[in-house]
Amino acid sequence: MTQSYVIIGDGIAGSSAAETLREEEPDADITVVTDEGEALYNRILIKEFAKGKLPEAPISIHDPSWYDERDIDLKLNTLVTDVDPDGHTIETHEGEVLSWDKLLVSVGGTPTQLPVDNSDAEGVHHFWTFQDARKIRSHMEEADSSVVVGAGLLGIDLAAITAAQGVEGKYLMRGNCWWRYALSPEGGEIIHDALRERNVEPVFESGVDHFEVDDDGKVTTAVDPNGDEYDADFVGIAIGLDFNTEILQGTDIECDDGIIVDEYMRTNHEDVFAAGDITQFHDVILGERAQNGAWGSAKEQGTIAAKNMVDYESEEFRWVSSYSITHFDFPFLSFGHPTLGDDEAEIKHSDTEWRRLAFKDGKIVGGVLIGDLSPQSKYKKLMREERVVADQKDVLMQEQFDIEDLDLEEEAPAE
User: Boundaries of each NADH-rubredoxin oxidoreductase C-terminal domain copy (predicted)?
Assistant: First the structure.
């Protein structure tokens, strides 16, 4: 009997799942439904497009012919309005009902709105989709001043975009350091100095109380809770994602801040799976539930979900993700879960070289590297092998770290 698969979402998780399903099930019916108006594109590269460094062409990964060649039915500009797990159907905004044997939900999230006056004014931008990048790039051509809000990985993309476009600005952060949950002030200062060199000034212990607009409704000023005012005819906001779990509202699919899945990417319904940054998955390395929005993680989740949709428990999700930043003259990389753990170690080797490791129960669970990225593969190996190494921090922090310098048990735990 021919199996029918429906995938909601055509990001890297959904697209990877569709490709894997076709490889595993040559005769299956596969449908991909997305509310976006274009097929899969590279979310990593849209920041370079927004900077003005890339044209549109390299951003696209798949065009509609890619799906046609694989006999995958792609439905663009299609919003799913109802999911019926027990009836094995979904319904679209046009009233079309699609039946499925197995369903994958990979719908990601929507940028969190800043709950202050005039946050929806003309000139206030979020940065998540290719269309967002197009609007930002266009606006940057006429902007003279900018304010960026949100001291995380997307926020610094926005700050770097304003710098690349030659627009001076302020970068407002609630704490005393960029990405303060993963970096100490010492590590953060390397990032702060690089921003200042590009005419983006970090403003700490700040935020936005409200925006002021002109008579045409265009943003002109950001006012922080201290009453300080910052000129801004461009505003970028990146304060997090609201995951699109409302698509499952009214069902018995278990959700929290995301869709809860096991290590095989299956929900509490045996025929419903999820993948991508919307998932709260059982991290077999960390030993607890986790969430990760990195591109590589989402791609792998889509692949693993598809394999288990075909043959449940055939392969578990076991992945050490990483996220790199290429905005500066030095490289930056985070891996694993650098904001989690019960212990840490860090060291600064030079003005542009710093590293930090996070540990849980003596094992590495994540880290951040600035400058020299060469230790990452060694740290990841120790993570995958679940080695207890927190008692050897002095060795781990050596500038020329080598695993052979560690005192390890002869046999690694089974992966």
Answer: 329-386
The predicted-structure confidence for 201-256, as pLDDT tens digits, reads as follows 999 999 999 999 999 999 999 999 999 999 999 999 999 999 999 999 999 999 99
Residues in the chain, how many?
A: 415
Under CATH, domain 322-405 is a member of which superfamily?
FAD/NAD-linked reductase, C-terminal dimerisation domain (3.30.390.30)
Query: pLDDT tens, 146-184?
Result: 999 999 999 999 999 999 999 999 999 999 999 999 999
Distance from the first to the final alpha carbon of the chain? 36
* Superfamily of the domain at 118-237: FAD/NAD(P)-binding domain (3.50.50.60)
Distance between CA atoms of 363 and 383, rounded to whole angstroms? 7
Residue 262, CA distances (Å) to 254, 273, 287 in order? 11, 9, 12
Cα 292 from Cα 305, distance rounded (Å): 15
Cβ 305 vs Cβ 273: under 8 Å? yes
